[in-house]
Amino acid sequence: MLLKRVLLAALLSLSSVNAFPNPNHANDLEAREAEDNLVARGGNTDCGSYASWDKGKNRCVCKDNGKVYDSKHKTCNCPPGQVWYGYGCVVDCGKQAHYDKWQKKCICNNNGQVYDSKSKTCSCPPGKVWNGKSCIQDCGKDAHYDSNQKKCVCNNKGEVYDSKSKTCSCPPGQVWNGKQCVVDCGKQAHYDWHQKKCVCNNKGEIYNSQSKTCSCPGGQYWNGKKCICPYGKVWNGKNCIEDCGKDAHFDWNQKKCVCNKNGEIYNSQSKTCSCPGGQYFNGKKCVCPYGKVWNGKQCIEDCGKDAHFDWNQKKCVCNKNGEIYNSQSKTCSCPNGQYWNGKQCVCPYGKVWNGKQCVEDCGKDAHFDWNQKKCVCNKNGEIYNSQSKTCSCPDGQYFNGKQCACPYGQIWNGKQCIPNCGKDATFDGNQKKCVCNKKGEVFDSKSLTCSCPSGTVWNGYACFQDCGKDAHYDTNQKKCVCNNKGQVFNSQSKTCSCPGNQYWNGKQCACPYGSTWDSGKKTCKQNSY
């Protein structure tokens, strides 16, 4: 049986017109052996549609040259590893290549590609890709090979090709905006080609190139529409500053609102400026009205160089202690008779200041009286001693707290203390006793009064007999005489009345109606008819 197989194989190899090698020869022998068995057994010679019985070969032979008959399925196929090429079986090179009988190898359909026998696929050599026409440099997805420049060129203009990663990206600091590479401005800004710089998306915000962020400048904040300053502040072009109104501006050095006009003072409540303390603006600066000057707080009287204005006294006060201000000349000088000793105004030696002028130095106990032109003691009644410049009460007197006074029971007569004789008498130094001022009166030492002796009265000239109210003393008659003529004086009662039964009719003593006076009997008698 083995010998039969060897002989059959030799015959097949010699008779074959196919120039291609047959890698599945064993299978072919098995097929033919199966056919021989069929013939030997007188089997059916039906070879199917793809083959016919070859009597010479005594077997089924495929109609297509090179194919191998499959007796089980009555089909014809190229040997394993081969495919039908239209005129014969050739090596199976896959879909991407074909067998070149001259080169006796698989050749890729696409020129320049390299065949891989294991995968039966074609691909460009390492580092290259198929562009639809030929293998070119593999530039990745972001770039393409430029045959003129002989290098990979990025698809997006402006991007730079990285041969290691085969990727394209914008140069450092730039990003792709969908059309081209522009400066990388971050998320909050975009590149403005007209201004050639990054511009913030929110109008008014300022771009920070280091952090690539945007923020409102100088204390402003974004209110959803624009950058604005906080309440009470305004934008000066650089920063948010205090809203100083129209009359003033914010001074960064002083950190406060400063008035535009020189010298004006800012009012933070009204946000206005005005000249301070009585000043007015003269077109250049704040000045005081004529005759006044600025003391740093307000306009005050112009006191000249020698003096200053004292608000408590509301007047100009000399700088030197004691000097007097002259409002006309606006100068100061020491007052009447004084001179400046370097510290204060003082009077010449031997004189003192009495508040108005220099006067004689009268010591502590006295003062100079301009009316009397002499030193007068401060204590009432004291006598001034010009040598010792002291005061003391005159001889015999003492100071009782109010004035100089004589001892109890004595009075001052202008020269000395004498016994107090009251108003009615005076002290007689010769007689050493009180003598009544009215001649004839007698002095009473207890009551310090004078009165006429008992039984007499003072008539304006001297002491005379006391005649009562109804009469008077007649010096010629040396007796009391009634004031009403005709009346009779009663020495005991010191009264006057009409004699007898007469009465006073307002003019004289008269008898009652119907009677007449009887001078002999000293009575009124009834008239007889």
TrEMBL record:
Name assigned to this protein: QI74 protein
Natural source organism: Trichoderma gamsii
Signal sequence, start to end: 1-19
Gene3D superfamilies in UniProt: Tie2 ligand-binding domain superfamily
Record keywords: Signal
